[in-house]
Specification:
4 strands, globular
């Protein structure tokens, strides 16, 4: 079992770093234009996303393959 990589509003950040909003579809055709970025410390609570279908993901893990 791996580490959780996507987080919803109210979840706590497992590690410090820069997090970005990602959409529910992981296709490069549906990339979010100008996604929100937030700087988090370990234990900070994630804020509400711009859209109920979006989640927070750490920038290093948010790359599209």
């Amino acid at each position: 079992m791996g580490e959780q990589t996507e987080f919803e509003e109210g979840h706590r950040a497992p590690n410090p770093g820069l997090y970005v909003e990602v959409g529910e579809a992981r296709s490069f055709h549906t990339q979010i234009q100008n996604p929100r970025h937030i700087q988090m410390k370990k234990g900070d609570t994630f804020p509400e996303t711009s859209n109920k279908n979006r989640k927070w993901k750490k920038v290093e893990k948010a790359r599209v393959h």
